[in-house]
Design a protein that fits this description.
By secondary structure, the protein is an alpha+beta fold. The protein has 54 helices and 30 strands. Helix 16 packs antiparallel against helix 17.
Length: 1427
């Protein structure tokens, strides 16, 4: 042997020593040390140059054993790495037994990953190989059967699992004898399956067999003995034998503690199981203590990302959920979920369990949409990972059924329960406790539907199974007795109800102890019966017992305690303990206010999971109490006495509350009152002092450097219109006004009932039947659980798969109505009638770039205060706050506002009103003309003269609007530096005059006398964004939770409809639209009727405005990178904005994709944005925003182009005196969409579209009341090419008629956006050569072969030839005479084509055949100007 061989021999011996040390460490569960030895061994093997089978064998063993360690640690990724290495080595060694070993390990890795089908494939392949090489069917085949049994168990195929275990056991008994430890292991696995099947006696029998073997082989104190004790404890836990479960867990703990280190994971698992039992017993602090012990150990032993850590977080979440600490519960579940997703992937069944339990929390919170979302996530994973008849899938169907029951969607609930039942009967047999759970839930549905006999049948079926499977004293049986008692209570069979409640109580006291929250639930239900019997002392005693239990369980802020307090307060009222009642009711109110969860009563016996987003049950939306009224009137003599008025004055508060509630329910159907709110909107050019006048009028402080209003300022300032006290700083908010209106309507119903004496004993009895005065929903939730598998190899097995049985209240809808009623009622008790009217103040930004954004916010049912600068001439150009002159004059700006306000309203109604003893008739909408900058006018008469001159010039230009405008002659001095006594007095006088004018008009408006249903006011209260509420003001919890769960910033019609139905606020689709239109008119919401098919609703107007402002910056780009600033400047220079910039400015709002899409969609619908569809993916410009263009952008240079004469499109001055910027910009966007033209260029109120196939432009300009069109094409040097190009352009104009397209689009926009002018005739106009006035073209000009036009200006009346007609409107004969051959390429040589292309601007040069100009959809370039 040479030196090298000697060295390698020594190395090999050293490797074997390391391997043996690793094996020894692995046997003592010192995994880290074992991994260290294996790693050293592998490194030394790399130093051995020669290959030998011994080295390969050793390397294979190291790979396989390392895989085993990682499997035990649940590190499936590393386990997979080493099993792949082992498989490669096994095939290299060509040893079948090693290949089967690898298949077994790989199958186990797949099982841990939740890939049960893949695992089954590997184990079956292993078994087939073993059968071939081991005809005697030895132990290796037994192991395969055992492994396959484990997969079947995980898939819920329990009978198949038992069959495989029996096959394995048969071989083991034959080969190893009956006392071998492997036999004990198989008995233990069979016990686990029986536990899952609810065959608890069989499970215990299997565990006892396993124990007997282990005692003989290992003695009494081996950790394996502790494992079996642990599993037996699981059975006792599932049976509800909690004391026995704790006792045997403590036995297991004692053995493990003496045999293992204190920080061993097995010890942590026992602490976790003990925590579960304490949670079932309602001992929440003890449960948390156990979980914290478990967590501490696991973090040390396993690290912070092991799935077993997720299990403990999960169980802690269960405790918080049971305590009603939903936010804490969700935090724990989400911690658990993060670990699971990292360790197990996103399709493991354990992930499904977590989603399911998060769903349970959302269900407990009443966030039913979120709950269903989580259940569906869970179901999707389960259907993918598990067999279709796995019990876990049945559990999820059952949970979805529970939500449908809450939502009163009973048919869907029954369908889900039946799906669940079918799976359970197939997988678990007909005597499993989970079957009882489903029967129980079906009973709940029938009870809610008042099908009491059917409900009792289902409960009896459930009870029969429970008694057989669980014995007489399981908590689930107590819950069934409880719910049977609820049915008897609903039927008025009070003695039978009490008997059932007492049975329930007896079991709970025995199983759970005297301080479990379920005991409190039963005491409360018994108290309800005593209240119904009039035994208030007995009821009070029971309620106080329930209160003590809940407080002792540290549930001081739980909704259940709030109900108990309320019940006690009601009893105190009956006992004439009024002061005590007030004190205790305040406690209830405090909890209700602080709680944001829907109050639900639940009897909790397992760990639940639930997500987050409040949702309120849906269902029937009206309650017809007419029959009750008729019956009440028929027996009104029962209440007839002479002391009615005295009785009402000294009415029992509880009785009075019920009477008001009855009135409230009637009002929901038929109650209404006059509208009391209108919007008053300040408008006008920029920098004229609108905001300053508004601040003076609403008694706010003026500022020297006040920021300009951007788009709209929804100030939420309310002005009292009946009485205007200039010194009064009282503020009003619209929420208070809605509440006052609701009170007025209900008060009217209440007084009507009292006067007509139909709040009879019968009516009160019916209210009692629906809503007992204590308000206690008599519902219970039973929850059963399939037993958990607590094994040493699967830490996550302690996650519980619970199936809650939730019994909702028989009259859930009425309870929801009562919740709303209780929100309003406390403020009514000392409230007097209020017949006031209010104006809600808005301030519109005057900058021209905002004009296009105003249209969605305008309303015909508003009054407008139009402000101008008294110091400026109407024909002066608008002066900005930076002393820059705009291209727009004050006249144009006022025309812009008046046309947008008046034209945008279809209302043609007229009103008569008297102001200063002068009666006049006005047309809606009303615009009050007010002036600012009075500080520049030293002479009062000069100011009046200026005002009159401005007014006359305005009416002269827009005579059609004279009946809409009221000239107030009010001139405000808003100089913030002038606060002299004289100035303040003048401001007050101006404000008073303006108030009187507003008051006069408002009191004349039909809108203010429309009867508004109470339903609309309640919906307004729900949708109202409470920006006007101070931090110290407490809002009702019912409103908080509904807003949090059901009200979103953007909502669809369907969502609003669902919300209104759920709370009795729905009458019909037409009424729903009318309600939304009303709230839009008041500015409470913005109803975008044109977006999508049915429209969308923005409930938070300020939020939408902030988003608009973010995109449409007035002066400065938002902070950001240099790139963002450049993109902003480019938008201002080109009128095109990048999607990258929009994403940047919207980022702070954290919009989800759906909301962002809705925002963009509504902006596109109203042409605030217009998508530029480009063939070039690199094109940065994705939206067209012409209004952002800076006014100083240079005009087009057309010196190198042939330019046509101008053709005008518009209306007669008496029809539409002005086309607003908003309409013009919408027209540009509409043309952009029509022509799909990405090469549009802009300058001030002018756009140039290039129509590439015809090599010319269309120019569209805005010219006051008209749209001006021109087309142009390049001047070419080659005469042939020039003639050819001219022919192409003329042909394109004739064939495609772009002027007709522009005309049709303008007409469509006017009809759509300006309904006041619907039916106005749109025409073509040409300019007279002499007087330059416009004359419309008679129809015959489009038919005849001449271009002579007679000027319609009476002072001119000249006949003139119009080149515009030649250029644009040719007859067919004229066109045919001038038309070149269609097949242009035959006349077009290469030189001509080249000259045409070269003459084009560089940005449009492209390789294209000339023949393509005839392609559909290609047009000439049209320039559109606004003149």
């Amino acid at each position: 042997m040479n030196n090298q061989q000697l060295i390698e021999s020594i190395l090999f011996e050293n490797v074997k020593l390391l391997y043996n040390e690793a094996l020894a460490s692995q046997e003592t569960n010192d995994d880290q040390q074992a991994l260290s030895y294996y790693t050293q061994a592998l490194n030394q093997i790399k130093s051995i140059d020669y290959n030998s089978q011994d080295i390969d064998q050793l390397q294979y063993n190291i790979f396989l054993n390392t895989c085993d360690i990682y499997i035990r640690q649940y590190n499936v990724d590393m386990a997979n790495v080493f099993i792949q290495k082992a498989i490669k080595m096994a095939y290299q060694l060509q040893q079948q037994d090693k290949i089967t070993q690898c298949l077994d390990r790989r199958g186990e890795v797949k099982r841990l990953k939740g890939d049960y089908d893949g695992a089954l494939l590997d184990h079956n392949k292993s078994a087939e190989t073993k059968l071939k090489i081991d005809q005697d069917q030895g132990l290796q085949l037994s192991n395969s059967y055992f492994n396959i049994g484990n997969i079947y168990q995980a898939q819920g195929r329990y009978d198949d699992a038992v069959s495989m275990y029996e096959k394995s056991l048969k071989i083991q008994l034959s080969v190893l004898g009956k006392n071998h430890l492997s036999v004990a292991t198989t008995y233990g696995s069979m016990g686990n399956v029986y536990n899952y099947q609810g065959k608890y006696d069989d499970a215990i029998s299997m565990y006892e067999k396993a124990l007997k073997i282990k005692f003989l082989a290992l003695g009494n104190d081996h950790p394996s003995i502790a494992d079996t004790y642990h599993n037996m404890g699981n059975v006792y836990e599932a049976q509800g034998n909690y004391d026995d479960a704790l006792s045997i867990y403590e036995k297991s703990l004692k053995i493990q503690s003496s045999a293992l280190d204190d920080d061993h994971p097995y010890i942590a698992n026992i602490y976790g199981s003990m925590g579960n039992v304490y949670n079932y017993q309602g001992k929440y602090e003890e449960a948390l203590s156990m979980y914290e012990k478990s967590l501490k150990i696991k973090l040390i032993a396993l690290g912070d990302d092991h799935p077993s850590i997720a299990t403990t977080y999960h169980n802690m979440g269960n405790v918080y959920d049971d305590q009603g600490k939903y936010d804490d519960a969700l935090a724990m579940y989400k911690k658990s979920l993060i670990i699971q997703l990292s360790a197990l992937g996103d399709s493991h069944p354990s992930i499904a369990t977590t989603y399911h339990n998060i769903g349970n929390v959302y269900e407990d919170q009443g966030k039913y949409n979120d709950a269903v979302s989580m259940y569906e996530k869970s179901l999707k994973i389960q259907l993918s990972a598990l067999s279709e008849d796995h019990p876990s899938i049945a559990t999820t169907y059952g949970s979805i059924g529970n939500v449908y029951t809450y939502l009163r969607k009973y048919d869907q609930a029954v369908s889900m329960y039946k799906k669940s039942l079918k799976i359970k009967l197939s997988a678990l047999g007909d005597n499993h406790p989970s079957i009882a759970t489903t029967y129980h839930n079906l009973g709940n549905v029938y009870d809610d539907q008042d099908k009491y006999d059917d409900a009792l049948i289902m409960y009896e079926k459930s009870l029969k199974i429970q008694l057989s499977a669980l014995g007489d004293n399981h908590p689930s049986i107590a819950t069934t007795y409880h719910n049977i008692g609820n049915v008897y209570d609903d039927q008025g069979k009070y003695d039978e109800a009490l008997s059932m409640y007492e049975k329930s109580l007896k079991i709970d006291l025995l199983a759970l102890g005297q301080n479990h929250p379920s005991i409190a639930d039963t005491y409360s239900s018994m108290g309800n019966v005593y209240v119904a019997q009039g035994k208030y002392d007995d009821a009070t005693s029971l309620y106080e017992k329930a209160m003590a239990i809940l407080i002792d369980a540290q549930l001081q802020n739980h909704p259940n305690l709030a109900r108990v307090y309320n019940n006690i307060a009601n009893c105190y009222e009956k006992q004439n303990r009024h002061d005590d009642a007030i004190t205790i009711r305040r406690r209830s109110d405090d909890i209700r206010r602080s709680s944001q969860q829907i109050e639900t009563t639940s009897r909790t016996s397992t760990i639940d999971f639930s997500p987050s987003q409040d949702e309120v049950p849906a269902g029937d939306v009206t309650v017809d109490l007419n029959d009750q009224q008729i019956q009440s009137q028929q027996i009104s003599n029962l209440n007839n006495n002479d002391d009615d008025s005295h009785m009402q004055q000294n009415l029992d508060p509880a009785l009075k509350e019920k009477q008001y509630f009855s009135a409230y329910m009637l009002a929901l159907r038929q109650g209404s009152c006059k509208n009391k709110v209108i919007r008053a909107m300040y408008a006008g050019p920029e920098f004229v002092g609108k905001s300053s006048i508004m601040r003076v009028f609403t008694q706010q402080q003026l500022f020297t450097l006040q920021d300009p209003t951007q788009i709209v300022d929804q100030s939420d300032k309310m002005v009292h219109l009946k009485v205007y006290k200039i010194k009064d700083r009282t503020t009003y908010n619209v929420r208070q006004i809605w509440e006052n209106n609701v009170h007025e309507i209900v008060q009217s119903q209440y007084e009507n009932q009292i006067n007509n004496q139909y709040i009879s004993k019968l009516t009160l009895g019916l209210i009692d039947e629906y809503l007992p005065i204590n308000g206690q929903p008599r519902s219970s939730t039973i929850q059963s659980t399939t037993a958990n598998q607590h094994t040493t190899t699967a830490a996550l097995s302690s996650l519980r798969n619970s199936t809650p049985i939730t019994r909702t209240n028989n009259n859930l809808f009425l309870h929801q109505c009562r919740d709303f009623f209780l929100y309003f009622y406390p403020s009514w008790l000392n409230k007097s009638a209020d017949d006031s009217q209010y104006a809600k103040i808005w301030d519109f930004g005057g900058h021209s770039i905002y004009h296009v954004t105003h249209q969605p916010f305008l309303s015909g049912n508003s009054i407008y205060i139009l402000v101008f600068n008294i110091n400026q001439n109407i024909h002066d150009r608008v002066l900005t706050r930076d002393n820059q002159l705009l291209n727009m004059t004050y006249l144009q700006s006022m025309q812009e506002w008046l046309t947008s306000i008046i034209g945008g309203n279809a209302n043609q109604d007229k009103i008569k009103t008297t102001i200063n003893n002068d009666e006049a008739e006005y047309t809606l909408p009303i615009v009050i003309l007010v002036a600012s900058h009075g500080d520049y006018i030293t002479n009062k008469q000069e100011g009046i003269d200026r005002f009159i001159k401005f007014e006359q010039e305005l009416i002269k230009k827009m005579p059609r609007y004279s009946r809409n405008i009221y000239s107030s002659r009010i001139i405000f001095n808003c100089n913030p530096d002038d606060n002299s006594d004289i100035t303040r007095a003048e401001r007050e006088q101006c404000s008073l005059r303006l108030h009187e004018i507003m008051k006069s008009f408002v009191q004349s408006l039909p809108f203010m006398y429309n009867p508004i249903p109470i339903r609309w006011y309640i919906m307004a209260t729900i949708l109202h964004s409470p920006t006007d509420i101070s931090n110290t003001e407490i809002i009702s919890s019912i409103m908080n939770r509904i807003r949090a769960s059901r009200v979103h910033k953007i909502m669809t019609i369907q969502e609003i409809q669902s919300l209104s139905k759920d709370f009795g606020l729905y009458e019909s689709d037409d009424e729903l639209i009318a309600m939304l239109s009303y709230l839009h008119d008041l500015g409470e919401i913005i109803f975008f009727r044109k977006v999508n098919q049915s429209g969308i609703i923005v409930t938070n107007v300020d939020w939408l405005l902030r988003i608009f402002r973010a995109i449409i910056q007035l002066q400065n780009c938002v902070s950001g990178s240099l790139e963002m600033q450049l993109l902003y400047e480019e938008a201002r220079r080109t009128g095109k904005i990048s999607i990258k910039y929009i994403n940047h400015v919207l980022a702070p709002y954290q919009l989800d994709e759906k909301t962002k899409t809705s925002i963009i969609s509504l902006m596109e619908t109203y042409d605030i944005l217009c998508t530029i569809a480009s063939d070039n993916d690199q094109d940065r410009y994705h939206y067209f925003v012409p209004y952002l263009l800076q006014p100083d952008v240079k005009p087009f240079d057309l010196s190198q182009y042939h330019v046509s004469e101008m053709l005008f499109i518009g209306y007669e001055q008496n029809d539409i005196p002005y086309i607003p910027d908003g309409i013009y910009y919408c027209l540009l966007s509409s043309c952009l969409k029509e022509w799909n033209n990405t090469k549009v260029e802009l300058y001030y109120q002018c756009a140039k579209f290039y129509l590439i196939s015809s090599y010319h432009y269309i120019i569209i300009k805005k010219d006051n009341s008209y749209i001006c069109l021109q087309y142009c094409y390049q001047k070419l040097n080659n005469p042939t090419s020039a003639n050819l190009l001219k022919s192409m352009v003329e042909t394109s104009i004739y064939k495609h008629r772009p002027h007709d397209i522009v005309k049709e689009k303008l007409s469509s926009l006017i009809e759509d956006r300006m309904p006041k002018f619907k039916g106005a005739v749109i025409r073509y106009y040409v300019q007279c050569n002499k007087c330059y006035n416009l004359t419309f073209i008679q129809n015959e000009h489009e038919k005849q072969n001449h271009n002579l036009v007679q000027c319609q200006n009476q002072s001119c009346n000249m006949l003139f030839e119009s080149q515009s007609i030649n250029d644009w409107i040719k007859s067919k004969e004229e066109h045919d005479n001038a038309l070149c051959d269609d097949v242009i390429p035959e006349r077009c040589n290469k030189e001509v084509q080249h000259e045409i292309k070269v003459a084009q601007p560089s940005h449009i040069i492209r390789e294209q055949s000339v023949t393509s100009y005839q392609a559909a959809g290609d047009y000439t370039c049209v320039v559109i100007e606004n003149r």
